[in-house]
Amino acid sequence: MGKLDTFRQETRTWLEENCPDGAKGSGQIPFGSRSVELEPDVRLWLERMAGRGWTVPTWPKEYGGAELDRDEYKILIEELKRVGARTPLTGRGVNYIGPTILEFGTPEQKARWLPICAQGKGGWAMGYSEPGAGSDLASLSTQAVKQGDNYIINGRKTWTSDAVDCDYIFALVRTSPEKPKHDGISLVLIDMHQQGVQINPIRLISGSSPFCETLFEDAIVPTDDLIGGIDRGWTVGKRLLQFERSTHAGINISGSQGGRTEKSRMPELVKKYVGVEDGKIADNNMRNRLIQHEMNNQVQGITQRRALAELRSRAPGFTSSVVKLSNALNVQDGDELAIAAMGQQGFRWDTEGGASQKEVNTLKRWLYQKSLTIAGGTKEVQLNIIAKRVLGLPD
Ligand SMILES: Cc1cc2nc3c(=O)[nH]c(=O)nc-3n(C[C@H](O)[C@H](O)[C@H](O)COP(=O)(O)OP(=O)(O)OC[C@H]3O[C@@H](n4cnc5c(N)ncnc54)[C@H](O)[C@@H]3O)c2cc1C
């Protein structure tokens, strides 16, 4: 038996013996945090997976990973899905800040922070955007002033997704206001459970939302928790954005990501609402839209697989912008198609009046996924990056 067959066999046996029924389900293993208590079986599964290094399968063993190569990683995901087990951790801890610390952290920082990420001990928020700094991120003004062994942080971050449930936030802050704007920024890790951090949930027109604003008023960060060197935050922070974009694109192999695997739900949906005549979808226009969408979907899957096959690190560089953008546009196109196929049935805000929960969810998904071309850098910002960094066009 070859090495990969042996790995598959051992993995299968271990999973069958160790995955508690109560922890099975779709999606990834959730992380715990000081404000999110996990179900006992889910906690046990998280601990068992972390014990094998399978919450972050490709990370080095000394930091909580299993050092799986790409082929083993793929087998692990297939076997997890085969037994209906949740796949490895995902989220800003293992997918964004973890790989960034792996690349830029000191040995001490790696030893301190990476096991926290790998064991799913604590959620992470992302403190980049500010009221005056979104696409033009380098205009950020949150200040970090050194005082002895600490930085004192003052400022305001906005759109900090999930901050109310997080224990830590990685934030870009201004450490040298006198330098040109890209040169005076650093990346720091902030414990959110301290007096100087205030989190205000932002209520959107659709009701509750994961968004918050996070205010720092004399919050304290030990100087040891500045990642990648003083005033090097622009370089470090941009690499973190590549990890974020790769995660959105399904091509970050730190945690659970790794290419599209679900079957498209679109043919069945369109057939159901538009109807079938003579074995064909009854409306020419909808038939053509569906064919185009399915072709794009296939191309997207192939592009993801090619990007994964070419990976030399946990996530690619500027390619992440290409795949993130094409993925977002393709997903949004699918949502538009679903809403168009459903007609009036696609515009029901709740189940009163005869809509099913699935139909209501489709509408909400269509609205929510508009954010895919904003979050992690807007569509226009990705196009700028592709033009300059991938195609080499002049500024
Ligand atoms: C679902 C979601 C989750 C998010 N989560 C987080 C989070 O956890 N942490 C965090 O820090 N941020 C988060 N954000 C914020 C996100 O990063 C910003 O919204 C995004 O970077 C755009 O910034 P902005 O909203 O200030 O828009 P702006 O930068 O003001 O852009 C407004 C418009 O101008 C266009 N534009 C701006 N500059 C250019 C240019 N140079 N060329 C062409 N067009 C341009 C943009 O494309 C956009 O259409 C989240 C956003 C969303 C939607």
Describe what is shown at a glance.
Helices cover 42% and strands 14% of the residues.
Give an overview of the whole structure:
The protein is of the alpha+beta class. Helices cover 42% and strands 14% of the residues. The chain has three domains: 95 residues, Butyryl-Coa Dehydrogenase, subunit A, domain 1; 113 residues, Butyryl-CoA Dehydrogenase, subunit A, domain 2, CATH 2.40.110.10; 132 residues, Butyryl-CoA Dehydrogenase, subunit A, domain 3. The chain has a four-stranded mixed sheet with strand order 1-4-5-8. Strands 2-3-7-6 form a four-stranded antiparallel sheet, with no helix packed on it. The termini are far apart. Bound molecules: flavin-adenine dinucleotide. The site of flavin-adenine dinucleotide (FAD) has 17 residues, from strand 1 and helix 11.
> What is the CA–CA distance across the termini?
55 Å
Order of helices and strands: HHHHHEEEEEEEEHHEEHHHH
Q: Describe the sheet with the most strands.
A: 4 strands, mixed
- Tell me the count of domains: 3
Shape: globular
Relevant terms:
395 residues; alpha+beta; Butyryl-Coa Dehydrogenase, subunit A, domain 1; Butyryl-CoA Dehydrogenase, subunit A, domain 2; Butyryl-CoA Dehydrogenase, subunit A, domain 3; 3 domains; four-stranded mixed β-sheet; globular; binds flavin-adenine dinucleotide
